[in-house]
Amino acid sequence: MAAVLRDTRESYLYFGTKMARLLSGRVVSENNYHLAAQASFLPEDPRYLDRMKFGSVVTWQCIAPMAIERKAKYVRSRLAEADMQIAGHGRGIIHIAMDAELHSDASDLRRQRNLDTLSTFKMNSQVAIVYLHYFVPRVSEDHSWLTDETVDVFSRLEQSPPSFPAFTNANMLDNGLPAWRQSFRPSSA
Predict the structure, then answer these.
(1) Is residue 186 included in any domain, yes or no?
(2) Which long-range contacts (CB under 8 A, 24 or more apart) does 8-16 make?
(3) Are residues 138 and 169 part of one domain?
(4) How confident is the model at residue 139 (pLDDT cuts 50, 70, 90)?
(5) Same structural domain for residues 30 and 73?
(6) Are residues 112 and 163 in the same domain?
(7) How large is the C-alpha radius of gyration of the chain?
(8) Which pTM does this prediction carry?
(9) What does the alpha-carbon distance between residue 57 and residue 75 come to, in Å, rounded to a whole number?
(10) Residues 158 and 175 both lie in one domain
(11) Which residue, 165, 172, 130, is CA-closest to 151?
C-alpha cells in the first residue's frame, strides 16, 4: 500500500499492471491476476485512481494435470487436421499457433508433450516442415501490446530450415529460453 500511496500523492494511478506490481512488490503475470481496491477515481476517467483505502492483487497459475493434458492434446488434433488437408496435394508446410502462459510449468510440460507428439506422429501427407508457434501476450507499464514468440521447427528435409517467426521484425533473444521464461523488466517508475 505504501508504494501506491507514494505514487498517487500528487497524481492518479492507472488501475492495471503498475498497480499490481506496487501492491504485490513484484511483476505479476498480466494474464493471471485480479485487482480489487477501494479508492477515489479520476472523474474524467475512472480507470485512474488515487486516495486508496485498501487494495488487493491475487495471482494464480494452472497446475491441474487434466488441464495441462488437454492443452497438450491440442497439437495432435491440429496436426492430424492439417495433415489431412495437405494429403494428395504435394509437399506442404504446417504452422500451428497456440498461447502459452508466463512462468508456467504447464507451458513447459505442454511444449515437451508437443515435442513428443511431433516426434511420434505418422504423417499421411508430404508435409516437409511443421512450425509450432507459442505466443505469450504481454501488457506492461511501458507498452500497451507485446507478444513474445517461441518457434519449434520439425523438418523432413535434409537441412532443417531456420525458425520462421510470425513477427518477422521482432528483436530475437538468443538465450535458449522459451518466450514464457523470458524475464521482463518493468519501467523504473
Answers:
(1) no
(2) 8/49, 8/50, 8/51, 8/52, 11/50, 12/42, 12/48, 12/49, 12/50, 13/48, 13/49, 13/50, 14/47, 14/48, 15/47, 15/48, 15/49, 16/47, 16/139
(3) yes
(4) low
(5) no
(6) yes
(7) 21
(8) 0.69
(9) 33
(10) yes
(11) 165
